[in-house]
Amino acid sequence: MKRILALVLAAAMALSLAACGGGGSASSGNGSASTAGSASSGAASSDGSTPAGPGGSGTFKLGGIGPMTGGSAQYGMAAMTGAQIAVDEINALGGAVQFEFKSEDDVNVAETALNAYNSLKDWGMQILVGTVTTTPCISVSSEAYNDRIFCLTPSASSMDVTAGKDNMYQMCFTDPNQGIAGAEYISENFPDAKIAVIYKNDDAYSVGIRDAFSEKMGDSIVYEGTFTEDTQTDFSVQVAAAQAANADVIYLPMYYQPATVILTQARSIGYAPTFIGVDGMDGILDQEGFDITLAEDVLVMSPFSASSTDDRTVQFVTTYQEKMGQLPNQFAADGYDCVWAIYEAINAAGITSDMATDEICDQLISTFSSGSFKFTGLTGADQTWSTNGEVTKVPMAFVIKDGVYTTPEG
Fold this sequence. Notes:
- By secondary structure, this protein is α/β, with parallel strands linked by helices.
- It has two domains: 58-173 and 332-392, Response regulator (Rossmann fold); 176-302, Response regulator (Rossmann fold).
- Helices cover 36% and strands 18% of the residues.
- The strands form three sheets. It has a seven-stranded mixed β-sheet, sandwiched between helices.
- β8, α8 (256-268) and β9 form a beta-alpha-beta unit.
- The protein is globular, with a radius of gyration of 20 Å.
- It starts with 57 loop residues before the first strand and ends with a strand.
């Protein structure tokens, strides 16, 4: 495989991954609540320090929405399980801030997500972790804006999620910035490559990444192929066209399910370009029935790797494996980071659970967008947010070797 270097973008670029997710502890559609008692304030933050500021107090009702059944369940289950792990850790601290957590299944359908949102609102939700996937999140974010409920999505990355909604924040890379990041990476590491792009033209996530990538790469793209929800079981035409165009790199701005079909059909005709995927491809190794040898040398951009050896990641991976029986992906880490970031912001702002929901929302907006609030989690150090809800973090490129994500060699 060609030389691959870890991708580090300038810190000034606001980057936000998405996806675009078992029996775990994440609540199912009927929602089981997780609570714990309260004690003194000043509980340890996610990096082990004591949060600055006056400190919040009370038990907050934290909602979560994502697909926990259906074709995108791997993303939703991962994000909600990661969120539940964070809730359990925070409640176990015994501090003044506690969480009652309830998650709802949206099956990656916008209408179902709205029903889930209304159910959580009736329950008394004060803050929302969600939704996990882009199209449902666009619908829910409009309602949450009108209701003045603060939302931090683990992985819904479209600009439409946050546009015109000051209460909507992202833990993930935005679609345009992810497309730009992919273009920068390929330009640096594959400067003479002939590039093919295959994207899903009825998916806001895929289109958003593709548009930014294609604008940046220009004449280096020798073929573009599209597909829809109804045509993602056969890519023989697109794969053959990419091969005929002599593309030696194929960029895949999509989720892992259609990518598995593309990889399978490419091998069937003896076509072996370098495949470069986006964050939505995280989870491909856990796709049921997929031959993971087909993913050998595939690159995936992500701010998280379960193979990292720092103490916090090791502890998170251990806990996640105990609950789910598999390694966590980036969506799990994003869900975990969402809860810890909300917790630290509550402490920094001195928010109390008896405040009105709109007051909690305004306080969290002020804190997250202040520029002085910095969050260190599993998916990046010193993360900050702009006033339009985009997060600034540094992405990395990981290559799949022998069925695991590894740091590329220079």
